[in-house]
Amino acid sequence: MRKKVLYGLLAGTLTLGIGTGAMASSALEPIKAYLNSKISLKLNGTVVTPKDANGKTVLPITYNGTTYLPVRAVGDLMDIDIRYDSATSSVLIGGNQGSPSETSSPLSLSSLGASVLGTSAWHTKDSSDTVYKGKDYKDVYLHTNSAKQGNSFQIMTGKKYAKLHLELAVTGGAQEIVIMDHNNSTLKKVSLTAEDGLVGVDVDVSAADFIFVEIVDEGPGTSLFVPLTSSYLTK
Question: What percent of the chain has pLDDT over 70?
Answer without folding.
Answer: 79
